[in-house]
Amino acid sequence: MKYMIWNNKGGVGKTFITYLLASEYAKTHTDTDVIVIDLCPQANVSEMLLGGNGKGEDNLTKCYDNGVTIAGYIKSRYDKSRFGKLGSELGYFVNVSDHNKDMPKNLYLLPGDTDLDICSAIINYLAQAPEKNSWAKSRTFLIDLIDSIENDRASKKRKLVFFFDCNPSFANYTEMAVIAADRIIVPCTADSASIRGIHNLFRMIYGVEVRNSNNRLTEDSVFDTFVTKAKEAGLILPKIHLFIQNKSRVLDKEATVAFRAHMSEVESIVANAKSDSPDLFSSNDDLILNIKDGNTLASIANHTGLPLFSIQPTNYRIYGKNTKANQTQITALQQDVEKCVKSL
Predict the structure, then answer these.
(1) Closest to 161 in 3D by CA, of 49, 40, 25
(2) Is 26 helix (H, G, I), strand (E, B) or coil?
């Protein structure tokens, strides 16, 4: 199964949620190889997985230097085989534990790259090539990479699950993720911008607008949008699987009026959309789950490269200052992450 983690809004915790889900899934599913694909130019999840600030940055730089990144692959395809596989796709996946011993040995990474935005021009150029189905072919590079590791693991009788960390924009490399994904996980926070991001997700990926209790085609459908091109190409779009309310309060009854109002609005959007367009959703019953505020733990994980299950209730030195991990916070976040993983 391939999960895309995306919302058309920054700051909702896409990267940290990807990090949490992937590392926890790898820990609890030892018979499965877990693959993180970093489709964000900031490459934050790559740096975290490869060891955190400092060490992870150095390891990621080595990946850049060796061209072992998503951008490195796109550039190589442009130079050598624009509409066909290179034959070396498997070499772009990195075993995370080779660089970060705290991570499970069944966790792999296709590293992100700051050059991904530069590669956007390459993707658009190839989409306009005088080649049949050139737009669709320009958006399936990620599928070619995934096929290579799926075929390899099938021969070894290993299961696979993928997590795509995506940046908030709807760039052409985000479209690559949509086309390659089976399911979408939507992180959100209790604010109006996050809610607008959810509305935009429905519009940009599916061409529908969720408004009150009605879903209708947007006026965007008359233009040459992603959804029209995808339909013309006969591409299958992923199903929405889960909304994660990130940074939730410890107990709903303690939430402020504004916070609860935003949470209710998200619940209303999801209920209305599933009622009117059930075909857009997977069969998952627990459509909305919560992950409690883990700001301190996120800082520790980001700096040290430790998975949540390895963080202890002690002091950690972050940029020369002591930061204390609280056991209550660790336990609460761990329980929420475990529930999210079980829903996958």
Answers:
(1) 25
(2) helix
Residue 69 near residue 113 (C-beta atoms within 8 A): yes
Closest alpha carbon to 105 in 53, 36, 27? 27
Does this model's pTM top 0.90?
yes
Alpha helices in the chain (DSSP H): 14-28, 44-49, 55-66, 70-80, 116-127, 134-138, 141-155, 172-180, 192-201, 226-232, 257-276, 295-304, 327-342
Structure confidence by residue, pLDDT tens digits, 27-52: 999 999 999 999 999 999 999 999 99
Task: Find, among 254, 232, 308, 278, the residue nearest to 16 by Cα.
Answer: 308
**Torsion angle in degrees (nearest 10) through CA of 6, 154, 59, 171:** -30
Kindly list the structural domains of the chain, giving each domain's residue range(s) and its CATH number in brackets, ordered by start.
2-294 (3.40.50.300)
Q: Which strand (E) or helix (H) includes residue 108?
A: strand 107-110
Task: Using only the alpha carbons of the chain, give its radius of gyration.
Answer: 20
Q: Which DSSP letter does residue 186 get?
A: E
Per the CB < 8 A criterion, the answer to whether 176 and 238 are in contact is no
Q: Is the dihedral of CA 204, 207, 209, 215 positive or negative?
A: negative
Average pLDDT of span 19-28: 97
Structure-model confidence comparison of residues 131 and 26, the more confident one: 26
